[in-house]
Design a protein that fits this description.
about 35% helix; pyridine nucleotide biosynthesis; L-aspartate oxidase; single chain; FAD/NAD(P)-binding domain; Flavocytochrome C3, Chain A, domain 1; about 525 residues; 2 domains; FAD; four-stranded mixed β-sheet; globular; alpha/beta
Length: about 525
Amino acid sequence: MREVSTGRVVIVGAGLGALYAALKLAPRPVLMISPEVLGQGASSAWAQGGVAAAMDPADSAAAHARDTLRAGAGTVDPAIAALVTEEARAHILDLTRLGTPFDRRPDGGYVLSREAAHSFARVVRVRGDQAGAEIMRALVACLREAPSVQVLEGVMATGLRVEDGRVAGVEVALSGPQGSAPLLIRAPAVLLAGGGSGGLYALTTNPPRIRGQVIGMAARAGAEIADAEFVQFHPTAIDCGEDPAPLATEALRGEGAHLVNRLGERFMPAVHPDAELAPRDVVARAIYAQSQAGLRPMLDTRACLGDRILTEFPAVAGACARAGIDPTREPIPVAAAAHYHMGGVAVDSDGRASLDRLWVCGEASSTGLHGANRLASNGLLEALVYARRCALSIAARLGPAAQDAPEIVLPDLPPGPVPDPALVARLRRAMTEGAGVLRDAGGLTRCLREIAAIEAAQPDCPVLLNMTATATLIAAAALMRQESRGAHCRTDFPQTLPEGRRSRLTLSQALALRASLEPETT
């Protein structure tokens, strides 16, 4: 394998966590690996709701932490919840200073939305449902002006090089349709900030590239993975046949939108006292049950918003227009879709992984904040908090910044393997059928066997192996957790055990479990 060396900190990914960390590392030289043009294809840019923070004088970080603990169904780390919510306000003010045009009241205060399982309106937003896109736009503009940051666009990380127990660099390849042979970039430190795993499922709200590759390559290098079984399904993806599915933000239900079925019946009041504002796992299962019963669940915004949906929630209105839906006159069909992975690479309070010289922030990490069921709009908040904490930790670990870190120039690379689209489609179907909203031992076992078969069909493709590694970890951890908790619902183990515990698993352990399930051959 060809290789180059750099004195720059390598950041894998180009979403909110990656951009914010790069800015916080300045003036330390940084090399950012982005599969697409900077700012495109990142989950952060698709986030509609906003950032949760106690900005109302009547609210508090302590109340925000309590809501986080309650939503997380017994597996949130209380110290991490307190740490993250205490920092939230400072990050909103920082993003404002960096140019994010948050919605403001005439008196200068922030417009705040209430979302499911929050006891206060505390979600800071931009133009209704444009928070992720506008925050990313502001950060990209800042990054383009930062002389310390080099961005390699059109390049995808495919693996980590571990030597003497520490991460020595990142293996990369061109991310176009032809791919390329791998190249090793040696670096003093690596920060993974490349998104989650929602695209491993056939129905998802995540961008097409977000298919567990970052978690997978860390796992393949030996990093410990935590809470892999906890995949959050968003209850109100717009059911219009698009892949990925557009999102009908939870803020619509915060504004008073009701869930109804094709018979015009509201079904959430009978399911939970908070009705449409119940925790996401509860609403997702109710939506899924309506879909399975052929009752076509829908979100009705007509009474609470009327024509205002067209101007106050432009992303939702645009998705409806593409699908030929007029939300001012008819309800919006919805379905439960894979949305956010609470699990990921296990990190400490400074974002350090179990491998030396490796840090992780954002959805690819598992910090202990989200537990079994992420509180709405805590995802972007966690990415901001841990991007800064990772940057500070990297600076402390490496000491004074290198004075001479020239930009990397990639050599010409010959073509290399790319994932077979048919195998990726097979993998997504297997995950939806076996490790989806409802799970049982039989379905998870079949899912793991199918993942093994997919992996064996193209064993020379690192990108596919990263996907199957994460899929294996999700399904194995789900099989091992013999209870129902938060987003993890086992129909064969419906009870919730008295003591909540986080799961921790290495890929080798998950593969051993998978191998034990494979049918014996004669």
